[in-house]
Write a structure and sequence with these properties.
402 residues; TIM Barrel; Enolase-like_N; globular; 17 strands; Enolase-like, domain 1; binds 2-keto-3-deoxygluconate; binds magnesium ion
Amino acid sequence: MKIESVQTIVTCPGRNFVTVKVMTDEGVHGLGDATLNGRELAVQAYLDEHVIPCLIGRDPRNLEDIWQYLYRGAYWRRGPVTMTAIAAIDMALWDIKGKLAGMPVYQLLGGRSRWGLMVYGHANGRDHAEAVEAVQRHVEQGYKAIRVQSGVPGLGKVYGVGKGGGHYEPAEKGLPSEEPWDTSLYLRHTPELFRKVRDAVGFGPLLLHDAHHRLTPIEAARLGKALEPFSLFWLEDATPAENQEAFRLIRQHTTTPLAVGEVFNSVWDCKTLISEQLVDYIRATIVHAGGITHVRRIADFAAMYQVRTGFHGATDLSPVCMAAAVNFGLWAPNFGIQELMPHSELTDAVFPHNYRFEDGYLVMDEVPGLGVDIDEALAAKYPYERAYLPVARLADGAMWHW
Ligand code: KDG
Ligand code: MG
C-alpha cells in the first residue's frame, strides 16, 4: 500500500483552517488538522515544500516510522510549525489505519476507558454581571464545567471576552489589534468575580479560569491563593511556561490546581512540570504537539505522575483535531477534561463529523477512523483571509505577555 498524493486545503469559513488529505493507492484517504492560528500559511508551505514530497510512495500503515522520519530526519526538531505539520500527517495516517481496520481510532489505541469526555464551555462577560449570566446559561445547557472570563473594571477590552458579551473568536481579520493590560487591576477584581459566580450557582459546577500567561510567578501564587475559597477545577496558563521552574514557586503557595501547555509542542516543554508534579493538567494538543503518536507519549509520561489531560479546544483547532481529541480522550486512562468552544454552523458544514455534545459530554459512535470528513466544494468557497490574535500592551506602551 502506498501514499499516492497529499493535498493541503486552506479554508476560511469564518476563520482559517489548514487540513491535509492523504490519498492512498487503495482509495482510502485520511485527514489531519494543520491549523496554527495566525501562522497558517507557514505550516502549509512547510508541508507542501518540505514534507509531502518525501511521503509519496511510502506505506501509510508505518505511521511510527513516518513520524520518526519527519521528526529525527529534519535535523531541526520541535517548534510549532514543524510539530503542527508532523501532527497533521500523523492524524491522517491514524485515520487511514482506522478505516483499513474498520475501527475507530480509539479502538486502535486500546479501546474505550469511558463513554464520553466531560467538557468545559466558555462563559464570558464584559463585566461580572454578564459573566455570571453566561455561567447560568451554561449550567442550563448541561455543562458540568465552565471557564469564566470577565472584563476588568478600569481596563478596556480584555482578551477572551466577546464584543457582545457572549462568544468570542480568538483571531480577528486584518493585522493584530492592541489591547491594554494591567495586572494589579486584574488581580484585584478576579477573586470578586468568582465570589459572585459561586453565590449565583453554588459549588456544583466545576469552574476554571485562564490567566493567558500574563502573571509573574509570585502574582500567580497570590491569585491561586485568593481563589482557593472558590474551589476552582484549575487555574490555566498562570505564567509563561518557557521557564518551567517558575511553577515551583506557584506550587509552594497555593493548592489551586494548575493547568498549562496549550502552546507546547513536545514532551520536552513539560518534562520538568510533569516529573516534579508542578501542574495537575497538561493541555498540549494533538494538532500542535506532533499528533496522536507524540501526545500519547506525553499522556503516558504524565500518567506516571498523576497529571491528567485537559486538551486545548478553542475554535482555532478544526473539527478534524476535535475528532482526534475525542478518540484520544475516550481511550486515555488519565483523561481529565476537554475544552469545547463550539464551532460555527458553517465550520461544522465544511467538516461533517460524528462527535457531538450531549449533556456536558462529547460522545461519538463506533465509526471507522477519526469520524470526520471535509466538504471540499464548500471549503473552496471560503478562501484564506489574514487574521491574527490581538497583542497586549501596558499603560506605558510596552508589550506584555500573551
Ligand atoms: O489561538 C489562541 C487561542 O486558542 C487561545 O487564546 C484560546 O487560551 C485559549 C484557550 O484556553 O482556549
Ligand atoms: Mg488558554
